[in-house]
Each structure stands twice: as C-alpha cells, then as structure tokens.
Sequence to fold (738 residues):
Amino acid sequence: MALSLSLGPRVRKSPFFEAARADGLAAASVYNHMYMPTSYGDPAAEYDRLINGVAMWDVAVERQVALKGPDAMALARYLTPRNLDGLKIGQGKYAPICNFEGALINDPVLLQVSDDEFWFSIADSDITLWAGGIAGARGMNVEVFEPDVSPLAIQGPKSFDVVASLCGDWIRDLKYFAFRDFDLQGIPLVVARSGWSKQGGFEFYLRDGSRGEELWNIVKEAGAPYDIGPGTPNYVERVESGLISYGADTDPSSNPFEYGLGKFMDVDQPHDFAGKKALQAIRDAGVTRRFMGLLIDGPDFTGTNENRWDLSWNGANAGYLCASAYSPRKQSNIAVAMVHVDAIESGQRITVHAGGGDRTAEVVELPII
Amino acid sequence: MALSLSLGPRVRKSPFFEAARADGLAAASVYNHMYMPTSYGDPAAEYDRLINGVAMWDVAVERQVALKGPDAMALARYLTPRNLDGLKIGQGKYAPICNFEGALINDPVLLQVSDDEFWFSIADSDITLWAGGIAGARGMNVEVFEPDVSPLAIQGPKSFDVVASLCGDWIRDLKYFAFRDFDLQGIPLVVARSGWSKQGGFEFYLRDGSRGEELWNIVKEAGAPYDIGPGTPNYVERVESGLISYGADTDPSSNPFEYGLGKFMDVDQPHDFAGKKALQAIRDAGVTRRFMGLLIDGPDFTGTNENRWDLSWNGANAGYLCASAYSPRKQSNIAVAMVHVDAIESGQRITVHAGGGDRTAEVVELPII
Fold:
C-alpha cells in the first residue's frame, strides 16, 4: 500500500516547493532535512523531456555548506582527497569527502565563490557537522554554515536555448562545472553548467530563498516555447548514465575507488587531509568490489526496486543491486550495482535476486549509455 | 493535495518497517536517513491508546552513535556540555550536544553500555559525522560508528504490565533512563525505561536487525490482553507534554538555555567540551526567547500546522509557533512555540498568524499538562 508523506515544520520546504506542488507534484522523499520532489505522476513524460527536450527540477535539497574566512581554503583542502591546486573562482570541481577510515561520506561539487568563501554542494549527509567539528577541533579560523542558496536545475538538450534566452548566449560557452554570478530580473543567482544528468544543463543557484516562486515562474515562462515541464532527478536516466547516488549506492564502508573515483583521489599530494593514511592503504590494497552496470534478462521492469536486491555468482553472494529500471533507449532492463571483483572478472552472467524472482544479468562498465 | 512518499533503497527501512506496514501504517516521514512511521490513519485511537492504554511504536529512527575504545569516555565528555561524572553502566543521561558556537545540534540520551562503549541515542542529525570528525581531528583512540541497534517503544500506562509479562517484574523498579541487557526468547535487547512521551513506558533496543518482525509480533501478542495497538511518537501528547522535537522546534542558532536545558549545561565544569566558551557567554548574556506553551483561542483545530506560524506582540514579530493541535485533555487548542522574552514577560496575549487567519493566545509554561 502506498504511504503518504507527512508534512510538518520538522522537514524544510524548498523555496520552489509550493510552486512545484501547484504544478502537480505527486511524490517526494526527504534529503538533507528538506522535501525532495521525486515524481509528477508521469514518468514517461518526465523521462522524455529530459532526453529530448527540457525539464525544470527543484533540487534545493542540494544544500550548500559554506566555508568562509582566513582558513577556508585550508579547511577545504583538509576535507577532500582531491588536490585543490588550480581551484579558482568560477570553476567548480567534483570533490568527494571521506572520513578518517577512508569511507565516502559525501560526493559534492566544490565552488570557490570568492577569495575566502567556498561552497560544497552536497549529497544527503550533514557535512556542516563534519566540517564544523573538524574546524572547531583544529582551532581553525573559519565559519562553517549553510547559506541561503537553493539550486533549480534546468536539464535536457533544449536547456541551452532556455537558459540563453534568460541569461544570454555566453552560457553556451560555459565549461562543465563552470559558474558565474548573474542578476536575473533582480533575482541574485549563481548560474552553473551542471546538474545530475548527462543530458546537458544548468543549475540556477538561487541566493534569496524568498524569491523561489518568482524564479520558478520565470523559468517556466521562458521554457514554454520549448515545452518545458517539471521533473525531478531522473531514476532511469541516472541508471543509464551510471551517476552515483550517495546513500542509495553506498554503505558505511564504501570507498571512492570502488566507484571509479580513483582519478580524483590525490592520496600522495603534499597537503594533509582527512582519511589520507586510510586511503593510501585502500589504494595499495585494491578494491574487492566495483560499481557496475547490469543488463538484466526477462520481462521488462514496470517500476523500480523498493529494496536492494542481492546478487550471486558461482554459488556465493556477489554484491547488491542499487537501482534498476527498464531503459527505453537501451531497450533492456538495466541496473547499477556493487559487484564483487571476482564475479566481474569471470566475465560470466550473475544472478539477480529480484523482487519477482531470480533473473540473470550481464555485468557491464558504466555508463550503460 | 497529499503527496506520496517514494520508497527506494536510498532511505533505510527499520527492522520493524514491514511489520508496521502489515499492521496498517498509513503515513511516514524520514528521520536519520530512515523511514519514520507517523500515522496509522486513526489519530484519536492512537492518542487514546497512549494516554489510557498501551501503544507500540517503531522508533528505530532513533539511531545509536557508538563510541568505543580507550578514549570513548574522553570523547563523550568532549561532546556534551553536561558533566558526565557519575555516569555508569545501566543508567542513561540526557546529554544535549552543541556545536562550537553553542547552538544545539542534537539532544540525545547517553547510555554507557560497557567500560569502553557509549551510545548516544540521537535525534535527526548526523552525529556520527560530528563525533567522528572531532575524534579524527583530535587524534583520539576511539571508534565512532552506528551499531545494529533499533528501538521499539512500548508506551502508555499499561506498558508496565505488558513489559513485565515479557521481562519480569523487575522492570517496574527501573528508574527513568535506567536500562539493562535482556534476552527475550533468544532476541538480544537492551530494555530501557524511556520513550518520547510522558505517559510512562519502555524502549526495547533491538540488537539484531534481522529479528525485527519477530520482536514486533512478540510484543503485539503480549500486549493483546491490554488492547495494545500500533502508534507513533504522538503529535498531540508531545505538545501537551512540551517535549522538544529537534528540527521542528530548533533553528541553526537555537541554544539549550532557550529550551530550559540550562540545568544540564555544566559550563563551568573542569572538563573541556565543544562549545564551552560560547555557552559560557550565552549563559552570561541570558536568553532573548524561550520555548513555551500556548493556549490558542477560536474554533478547535482539526489538524496540525504544516508550516511554522509567526507570532506577534505589540506590533512586532514575537517568535514562531512550532507545533499546534487541539488537546482533548486540556480541551483547548495548544501549541509549543519559541517566544520572545519581552512578550512572555508582558503577561499579555500574543497573536498567532495561523494558517486559517489570526488568533490570540495565552503564553504558558511547559508542560501544558
């Protein structure tokens, strides 16, 4: 039986929440202590808009953790294994965060917004507490706080036309993760070339939470000629693209090497950072499982998996499936999964203990498409 | 329009979740990255069971943050402003946690479970990250982790009979927050005299997540002669009792003195702790707002407030209302609210900018009942 989502002041509302509801929001979850839209009730249309048109998503749950002050850069360096040499205002970097045991605790994008202010644009864990605890314990001269910043994503191939019509053609030249301050009809934004899809797009980081509905309606109107419609981070497309969903794909011992993030792990850099020793040891030991794609046989899936599904190979457990769906573009059932290396290296099919019964699957590299 | 709660592997399920659904769970939210039951669809019956009978609640979302190792006690002391002298195995203590600015970031109960292991039984924020960040930055010899522990609450005046029938009459002599290991038909538990109500009761801290359904059914069967039924932390009773709901009642600058927690703030103790200097200054300065009860006029409320409501007094903002409801026992509309001290001290009625229009209210001390 479907459950209702209880609404009350304990969980925060996004600046776009009421506008999203007015536009037919049907389902939500909670992410960073804020309601996260998950469906407008027509998954096929939402997928089609993302792949072939343009969609607008309330992703204010992607909260910012600001580091501000004389030690802000030193703290940013201490928080991520990625070497931040070359970080500059206007160009973001993907900057995973690990704990002292080397486990992944978030996978944010880092934006330097001024000489002494940095934002981690985070997944669902309280990095304000992690960063603030470390800064305080180390006696660093830096403020750690959540600023009034709420991203609205505009995604899909036609997002370029929509955003150019609002901001100008310069947005067509923005590099991936590049960003710029922009005043949109008096609304203060950071405009970034980013978003949690591989269909191209932008995020408007709204810097005044009182103007969410106004921004929503401006984007909706500018997008009307391109048939823009509301959507959410898309379940099917993220599986096709092999995007990592922190929490869905990870567990308390997940390390970045397992997710193909080794290229961002500058574990031998001269700067110290949380988890350095642990990550050096993990790098040296190598991984025992990897984040992979699956092509799964049998009848087309009609929904998504509510629970993780166990995998097996050669009579033993071979990991877990994180997210599965039928892909219209691949014309196959697909999934992302944590798969044991021995099963991957065998090249053989594995068994997926799916909700409706066992199926077999081919293990493939990501992205699937 | 009601929103559906999306279910998927990103948010965790409690060991009792499927049993709760089978027993008619109707609505839920998310708390500590886990689904939190909020309604079985009959609020009057759920309230009545708590006040006059006995109810069983899936409160596995009350996760434990374990500190284990030689420095566990030193870390526990560093994490709470409460002096932990006299803490002992078997007797919990309410131990609020503040950040380095003195703001409340959680209000857990602390349980010492062995010579070198402590559990913070937490509200909704990632204290694993706060504690782990501090421990790592300070180079302390302690593990910080979330153990496999999930509380099931048995609350209400008849909870004593139900729990005595399962565990023995010794449970009648447990002091508030006292606890003991117990083997219930082979299921490992910690039995504690605790729970988020003032109607009396116990929490079974299940120590093996694979046995949730079994424990649920044992309690259900033992409670049947007492008409036990499922319930959740009760909105109306918590307002009547003036219990603090972290996140619903607090904001990023809330400090413990505002919530009447000054008696637990041993800010002059010899031990150092996070936020000590800030809390000394806050104590010296005094508070500008306090957590209070309201008796609100007008027609009986038929539901609860989805958003915070602003308060005003003497023509100016006077704080915010956190949670409101009609109280059958008080036979009045009631609320908990953060109220400015000048409005409280005036002794005058304040205005509540309620969803359906302005109302006036008397400000009263907590608990209301």
